[in-house]
Specification:
The structure is a single chain. The protein has one domain. Helix content is 25%, strand content 36%. The protein contains one helix and four strands. Strands 2-1-4-3 form a four-stranded mixed beta sheet, with helices on one face. A hairpin with a 2-residue loop joins β3 and β4. The radius of gyration is 11 Å and the shape is globular.
Length: 61
C-alpha cells in the first residue's frame, strides 16, 4: 500500500482559515503567499494548489 496525494503544508494570509497537523506558513499578503508557495514547490518537490484567495496547500502527488 502506498500513500499518495497528502498535504505537506498550508500557506495563508488568514490564521483563522486553517488548522490541522500540517505545517502552516503565514503571509502578510497575496504576493508573499504566492512567493512562499512557489519556493516550497521547489524545496518539497510538491505542487501548490490554491484552495481559496487566502489559502494555498502543498500536496505531494
Amino acid at each position: 500500500m502506498e500513500v499518495t496525494g497528502y498535504i505537506l503544508a498550508m500557506i495563508t494570509t488568514q490564521k483563522e482559515k486553517v488548522g490541522g497537523g500540517a505545517p502552516i506558513f503565514f503571509a502578510e499578503n497575496l504576493e508573499e503567499m504566492q512567493a512562499i508557495a512557489f519556493n516550497l514547490e521547489k524545496i518539497m518537490d510538491a505542487s501548490a494548489h490554491e484552495v481559496s484567495e487566502t489559502v494555498f496547500i502543498m500536496v505531494k502527488h
